[in-house]
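Quick bug: Methionine--tRNA ligase, cytoplasmic output formatted oddly.
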Amino acid sequence: IAAAVDIWARGPAALPPPRQPRTPVLPVEGERNVLITSALPYVNNVPHLGNIIGCVLSADTFARYCRLRNWNTLFVCGTDEYGTATETRALEEGLSPQELCDRYHAVHADVYAWFRISFDHFGRTTTPQQTRIAQDIFQRLLARGFLLQDTLEQLRCESCGRYLADRFVEGTCPFCSYAEARGDQCDKCGKLINAVELKNPQCKLCRGTPVVTPTQHLFLDLPKLEGRLEAWLERTLATGDWTANARHITRTWLRDGLKPRCITRDLTWGTPVPLDGFRDKVFYVWFDAPIGYLSITANYTEQWERWWKNPEQ
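Here's what came back:
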C-alpha cells in the first residue's frame, strides 16, 4: 500500500513502461509468468450474462490486472464442443454436430469480442490437437496400468441401431412416477437416475422401446491413485489457497473412497478411443473436455508445453 501511495503521489511518469506485447506470449525466464484460463463455455446455445459473469468476466478482470502489473500473461479460453448435449441440439436444429459447433462457436466468439474480453486466444475443442493430446494422455494411462475394463448395462434402441445416451431416453421415474423423467434425472423430484432404472423407457429419437444390453467400457482406476493423491493433497492443502468448499468436497470424496470412473461412451460425436475393441466409442466429455485447456494453448503456439510442463517458470 505504501508503494502504491508513493507512485500515485509521483504521477504517471513514475510508472514503469508498459510491456510490449509479444506473439506468441511465452514464459520468460526471470519474470513472473501467469497462465489464465476460464471455464470452457458449452457450445450448444447463445451465451448470456450469467455465462459471462460466472467465469469469463472474472478471468478477464484478473488478466487485465496482471497486464497492468507488467506480468507476462497468457489468457486462453474456448468452446467445449463434444458430448451428448451437442448431439441433442444438432438433431433439434436439423444440423450435423460439426455444423452446430461451427455456428455457435462463431456466436460465442462474437459475443465475447463485443464485450471486449481480452483473450489472447479463443479456441475450441474440436481440433486435431485435441485428438492428439487426449489420445496421448490416454495411451500414457494405459501403459502405466491406470485403466481397467468392465461391463455396463445400457439401453439400446434396435430401431436406431445405437446405444442411447442418458439424454436420448425418457420414461417414468422409479421414485415419484413422473411420466417424463430423463435418463439422468427426474425434473419433478430432482433425484438422479440411471437410465436402465426408468419404467417404460422410450427412445427420444424414434419413440421405440429400448432394451437393456451389456456393453464393454474403459474406466480410470482412481483407487490405484488414491494414496498418491492423499499425500499430494496434504502438502497442497497446507500451503495452497483452497476455498473451504473445495477442501470439504475433496475430503468427502476421499473419505468415501474413490471409485473407478467410466471414461468412454457409445457415441459417435467425440474424440475416438484409440484401442482395438473400443474404436466404435468416444471419450466421455468429462475426460476429454479438461484437456481442451492444453489443446487450445497448443493451437495458439506449438511451444504450448512451455506453459503446461514448466513448473520452474
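Actually, after a second look the formatting is fine. The two ends are 27 Å apart (CA to CA). Closing.
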